[in-house]
Amino acid sequence: MSTESCPVDHADRPTDPVSGCPVSVGAAAFDPFGDAYQADPPEAVRWSRDEEPVFYSPSLGYWVVTRYDDVKAVFRDNITFSPSIALEKITPVSDEAIATLERYDYAMNRTLVNEDEPEHMPRRRVLMDPFTPDRLSHHEPMVRRLTREYVDRFVDAGKADLVDEMLWEVPLTVALHFLGVPEEDMATLRKYSIAHTVNTWGRPSPEEQLTVAENVGKFWQYAGTVLDKLRRDPSGDGWMPYSIRKQREFPDVITDSYLHSMMMAGIVAAHETTANAAANALKLLLENRTVWEELCADPGLIPNAVEECLRHSGSVAAWRRLVTSDTTVGGVPIPAGAKLLIVNSSANRDERHFEDPDSVDIRRDNATEHLTFGYGSHQCMGKNLARMELQVFLEELTRRLPHLDLVPGQRFTYVPNTSFRGPEHLWVQWDPAANPERTDPALLHTRHPVRIGEPTTRGLSRTLTVERAEPAARDVVEITLAAPAGTPLPSWSPGAHIELQLGDDVSRQYSLCGDPEDRSRYRIAVLRDPDSRGGSRYVHDELRPGTSVAVRGPRNHFRLDAATRHHVFVAGGIGITPILAMADAVRAAGGSYELHYCGRSADTMALLDRVRRDHGPRLHEHVSDAGTRLDVTTLLAEPADGTRIYACGPQRLLSALDAASAHWPEDALSVEHFTTAGRELDPAVEHAFDVSLADSGLTVRVAPDQTVLAALRAANIDVPSDCEEGLCGTCEAPVLDGEVDHRDVVLTRAERSAGTRMMTCCSRACGASLTLGL
Ligand code: HEM
Ligand code: FES
């Protein structure tokens, strides 16, 4: 290996005996066209994530970036890290191939994905509207119709190559519809697209280069012909006619060169990415049979499953940027002019960001934070169209062919390249005699609503069975819920709650009070509320051993602070449930605590025997009937450093504690909230404001009757959410400028006054604008 071409500073680094260069053995051996990377890109660079997250690859001539935070930081800064090389040929082209391309006047140039500022953002803004969730919704019937037609063709066959028989052509047809391009010979377009992929991200041999150049040249010509046709009559539907019309208004922004290049790149961007993503998703789900079966049983899980598949096995494995000024990535100095291969598929498997990243968890609450669509000002404009297609594919296949299996023993092949990734064939088999639609034709007409835009984690329930329902005090029932055999339940920490779906329209949250180590069951205790509108009444009257219940969570908005030296636990009535779990944990860890349990009379105090047994010496019982009522003023008279009060109970008790702790250090009192007051926005009282997005280069107007979260989603910005009531912290965004009107119960007083974070589902601007780090 020549050290002359290597930009690593050789002066103070020993030469590696293998590579002949101060790069490490792993870096020297890195080959993105080799078998290991082609088989599994994130696995092939696992060593890098662990040992050397930013390294120089002498064979590629690129710096390679593999950890989540570093990849995202590169995506975020499109000035220091220019996207101009995103579509450059990664393998130098032979003179003959260049001559072939010239014969076709090939002049692929800047589109959006490889355009620098200041040209890029004005173009993106002008062309964005057809991609917003509102505008995308009318494509759904077309996507569904096409999907059904293709499934109809093979549903009775018992065996199919899903790629050849559906997953390639449906996205291509959708792409052509979306772009407003007449449907053409699909096989030819497929050949052209693959040639474009190999030409851009592959390592073709000199002979292959000629065939590739021939097809790429023809693709370019085809794009020009279609463009000319559309120019003659640009009145039709679709993004390309829309762009041609916009050119009349903004000729400097939408140039001729842009339109021709986008015509060709657009077909690839909209089609191959999605076809590959769909094939990857189906392969992954069928390889993880229990997950597939869960999806078949509960299609409500599909939107988040799509995100999890994009995270785990996305169709864009790596992307590229050019360094425009001397900088550092992950602490490693990188000189101006260096090229970066940012391995977003590796970032998506970084355990520093995703828990247990190699597993497939369709309920993962941060799955949408994957970087498969890139991030920031160039983030994929078509992501919501792709998400819609993937949801429809999964929905139709899980419903019509739940008994689908991968044909065993098949070897998966991939078009060798650094970036676009999906199996070339995906053979599946099933018994057509067992097709559910043969016995239940009504099934053909069912459809589950597609979520356009990003899924929330709210709908992600799992079905548990009531194992026991036992009295735990007067009017209190203790319910034990068990997981289906063999599937461990998600872990939880003291203070967490679950949400039970009780009948059609009612759901209620209950704190967990069992043993967090027991992953096979959850325990809750529920007080019968005489004014119940269905929640506690349903639990008491309907839940019996063997009943199934849909359960969401666990979630925790009420956590123990590890820095607490002494814990004062205060429970009022049924509020004992989270407090007991917390006290159990502190006791088990040998921590210091006292437990105050208040109730009207001993027979109404839930789980009292257990509380007495486990916490006797630390327990203070405050029983009104016995005249031992808690005096909160006396209890909290003396503030103590390092002491925190954790309370759950009736609002009267919590307000009294709040007042009595006013002279305590800020945030000494933590209370459990299940609801917040005032969810409805009153447009007569609220004002409109602007939110500027530093990473995305957009300014979004928030109407008086709209949340920041809703306004961001309407502008295609992904922000995960869960409670959408200011309780859980999922929708948090960094605040860079402007004063926030905080309306959540997540942030502490100190965090609110720091003004660097906000909950976008409920909090607003005090003034006319805010700047967020999104
Ligand atoms: C950009 C991935 C589907 C249109 C991108 C980028 C990636 C990507 C990685 C570059 C992001 C960056 O530099 O930060 C994907 C994946 C898809 C998909 C994985 C499917 C699963 C689509 C579809 C369309 C589309 C269906 C069009 C209908 C675009 C456009 C850009 C882009 C126009 C350029 C945006 C800009 O630079 O401002 N996509 N894409 N993509 N994608 Fe997609
Ligand atoms: Fe829960 Fe906003 S989504 S705080």
From TrEMBL:
Every FAD-binding FR-type domain range? 459-561
* Cofactor(s) annotated in UniProt: FMN
Q: Does the keyword Protein biosynthesis apply?
A: no
User: InterPro entries of this UniProt entry?
Assistant: 2Fe-2S_ferredoxin-like_sf, 2Fe-2S_ferredoxin-type, 2Fe2S_fd_BS, Beta-grasp_dom_sf, Cyt_P450, Cyt_P450_CS, Cyt_P450_sf, DmmA-like_N
Start and end residues of each 2Fe-2S ferredoxin-type domain: 689-774
This protein's UniProt keywords: 2Fe-2S, Flavoprotein, FMN, Iron, Iron-sulfur, Metal-binding, Oxidoreductase
What family does the database annotate?
Belongs to the cytochrome P450 family.
Q: What is this protein called?
A: Cytochrome P450/oxidoreductase
